[in-house]
Amino acid sequence: MDVAVESLVESSRIGFRRKLKAYISLTKPRVVELLLVTTVPTMILAERGIPNLWLVLATVIGGYMSAGSAGAFNCYIDRDIDRVMKRTSKRPLVTGELSDREALVFAWALGVASILVLGFFANWVAAGLSLVAILLYVVFYTLILKRRTPQNIVWGGIAGCMPVLIGWAAVTGSLDWAPFILFGVIFLWTPPHYWPLSMKYRDDYKDAGVPMLAVVRGRAVVGLQVILYAWAMVACSLLLIPVAPMGLFYTVVSVAAGGWFLYESHRLYNLAIRHEKVSPMRVFHGSIAYLTLIFLAVAIDPLLPF
Question: pTM of the entire structure?
Fold first, then answer.
């Protein structure tokens, strides 16, 4: 009897762990990780030093909850196409680890909690911007743009730019030109980050009826657009130097990282127009490395004496 009870308890524990893992998966942790990489450096830049660590913690937790809420709403709304696409076939609403109702309640609860956390522990400007970010991602991108236009990623990417505004507002209680330049960097970074991914999963998006640029126009057009946005992104990153103002460290990193990413973008395009085998994921992963380097420089530069 004791063995049977112990077995039942162990089974229950495994079930709880799977459920918890499913809820965490619903928040799209990898996407949220990128968002947080941009938030903390922006807070350091706003403070021109290390901000209050409790404020940073509250902003990071509130920001995670906000982005996680948007991700959960997205999983709920897109559950039909997630069942079609191989890339999303292991999401918890597809596997049945979570019910539709559980996901929807979780999304609402996380969203409300995120606004309260930011409002009470940071300020209500940051909380208001968090609400705007959720609405942009859920309504503007997921409900309106995603299934209607190949420009979905361009304009839908505005939601992913909001963490820099939230981080700055959490420290200062207001906004300035510097966070809007960082906003512009992320806005212009989103297409050359996501369109190479859509090249790799082109058939997935085509089967699901999602009009990604790679589906409706092809590799050469995607490659050209990646180049154009990459050049605009690098130019925008350099605007921060006189506006913030930034020092030698950020200047060197932004020029070097930008030059490297431009090389990778041109390489992708050249291979595409010659109808050779392309490696879009090389640009995709490179874009993550680029953004990480830029925001590390944003965080480190204010702490240096030069």
Answer: 0.91
